[in-house]
Amino acid sequence: MTADDAGRLEVAIRAARAGGSVALAHLGDPLYVSLKGRRDLLVGASVVVQDAIREAILSACPEDAFLGEEGPQDEVLPVAAERLWIVDPIDGSSNYLRGLPCFAISIGYRDANGFRVGVVLDPSRDELFSARFADGARLNGERIYVHVAGEGEEAYESSLIGTDLPSDTEGRLRASRAATYVASRMLGLVMLGSPALGLCYVAAGRLHAYFHLGLQLWDIAGAAVILQEAGATLTNGSGGSWLYSDGSYLATNGRLHGGMLRLLRAALPDPKTPSPPGRGLG
Fold first, then answer.
1. Does an H or E element contain 104, and which?
2. Domain 5-143 CATH assignment equals 3.40.1010.20
């Protein structure tokens, strides 16, 4: 049993590397494709990647619980487990299916004290984002921090924002409205197709904020500790604790957070209709 955060971080890194190798081996050969829901793809390679990650984690921590995105809809989720690993084997399935090199393996770990370890691997670029609680965030072993673009209005006009679209039609309409409103005030807005990478790009100072209206817990669990250890601010879409979300999340460099919340509220003044939940907790 690996008992401490440092040990579990090493386990998470090994598991991410194992999953990344499998993902790259199947790039262009997804095994099969099916629909979990409208615009919600299950790529067969994701299941194989998740199996490799699970084996790497549970061989080192056999008493821990494991929650992966890919599994039967009626599977009992181990939400009450004291020690829980939360995994998205391929974050950015549509990109992966079409051979676009913007997808990630996301692994988060939490215990009774909260989220302790996060790892997000971009296997296409060999970029490994990692963090453990109270030890800083790193990219390929080098410390990373958020970037603040400027003061006052300059902070808006010099900032690059990321977002992606939920899978449901109503969520997409709302997200598109929010994106248009936000983009009118910022330097630019990008859609990556991989929320885990978008969140890590905030931590690394590549983006100044990232928001999404319809994520699941496995989309954000790996990046959460990385963001916090890089100095970012992470909340739900209303500005409350990210641990209590209807699926909407906002991560920023801190300086932009209040302004981004005001922009999102102005763009979406009516009560939010959550995107249909999947098997997640987010």
1. strand 104-111
2. no
pLDDT tens track, the chain, 282 positions: 456 999 999 999 999 999 999 999 999 888 777 766 555 677 889 999 999 999 999 999 999 999 999 876 666 778 779 999 999 999 999 999 999 999 999 999 999 999 999 999 999 999 999 999 999 999 999 999 999 988 878 888 999 999 999 988 899 999 999 999 999 999 999 999 999 999 999 999 999 999 999 999 999 999 999 999 999 999 999 999 999 999 999 999 999 999 999 999 999 986 554 444 443 332
Are the beta carbons of 122 and 134 closer than 8 angstroms? no
Class of the domain covering 152-267:
alpha beta
Spatial distance between the Cα atoms of 192 and 71, rounded to a whole number of angstroms: 25
Residue 253: which of 165, 124, 158, 131 has the closest Cα?
158
Stated pTM of the model: 0.92
Helix (H, G, I), strand (E, B) or coil at 38: coil
Cα 246 to Cα 57, 241, 278, 282, distances in angstroms:
29, 11, 12, 6
Q: What is the DSSP string of 47-101?
A: HHHHHHHHHHHHHH-TTSEEEESSS-TTPPP-TT-SSEEEEEEEE-HHHHHTT-S
Q: Where are the domains of the chain?
A: 5-143, 152-267
CB 145 within 8 A of CB 230: yes
221 to 115, 118, 260: CA distances (angstroms): 8, 7, 22
